[in-house]
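haha ok so turns out i had the wrong file open the whole time. this is the CORRECT one, sorry everyone. sequence first:
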Amino acid sequence: MSIKPLGRDCELSTTGIGTDGEAIASWNVVRAILEQIGPVFRARGGEVWSGGVSRRGSYGESASSMDCLRNWVSNGQNYYSDMGHVEVCTALTACPKQFAAQCISTLLVVEEARKLAQAQADEGVQYSLSATNADVLDPAISWGTHLNVSVSHWLWEDLCLSHRHPAILGFVASAIAAAIPFFGAGYLLPMKDGSTVYSLSGRAHHLSRMKTLSTTEAWGRGLLNTRREPWGEDQDRLHLIGFDYSIVSAALLGTFVQCVLAAAEEGYCGCNVYDPVRALRTWSWSLDKDTGRMSAAATMVDGSKRTLPAYIGELAATLLEMCQSGLITEEVAPNAVELLPKIVELAHYAEEGSVNRCAKHLDWAAKLLY
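then structure:
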């Protein structure tokens, strides 16, 4: 069983308004903000290395470069331009609590850079960044936040290439399909009749396949992404593109995903739903805002039914038993023995409709209340 370092990146919606009230080209806003990453870090005693020169020349030669102004910083984070928007990337860590801290600190840094850039612009110019990864006015727009987790070579190949153990693929896809809404950020999904549905996940309507290579196809993204970028001699990166950039639930999400993948490496294949993609959407769109309950259930492979809270609670309890027995070790999933009981507790609160109790630890609940 391999250790499970994890990190995430976040594509930030990047916009600006000029003194004439017209929109500023996004790449000009990107350049202005990223030029302030260095001053922000150096003011705090950190170091910054910019990718000024590469084998192909200078990253900064073109303001509209597909990938420019890359800033590597001394805490392991990365700030850069990607396809006309600011993107931030946390450092890798095996500790879910550190992962959560990284998720917050990247946003604090880039927001400080935005403020500096705006202060140096002409009076009246406004720059804006948003980590919200879906647009209520246009549901075809979905900014990505990608979770990256280290897994063994054999598990990556089993999930994404060979499928020698389809039950393991079914388990991992089922668990990810449940984690995406349970740890989602909440989103008002516009309907054709003008009404809205409160979706636990901001990307459920874009996830329609078990796996895909593309990360940008509207309505056609996968629960698993098959882009292969190995991290080391014995480790692959599992690229998960369906999550929201949740903040208050980040540590819980991290430990849940670590334990799911560790269990898969041990051959566990229980808690499989019949159709993970349908289950994801059923669970995401099942919240009754009047009662706080999620009554819609997904069908399991044995024909039984599970609501989202019931599924999460059952699986988290199973993973906790694996940790307590030593099957999943502290080295592989740090903090799991502490954090998994909290997930079980939150699943119980969600089952009874106690949104206020969920709100301290689950972003969709906090957004619904506040």
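Confidence is low (pLDDT under 50) at residues 52-67.
again sry for the mixup
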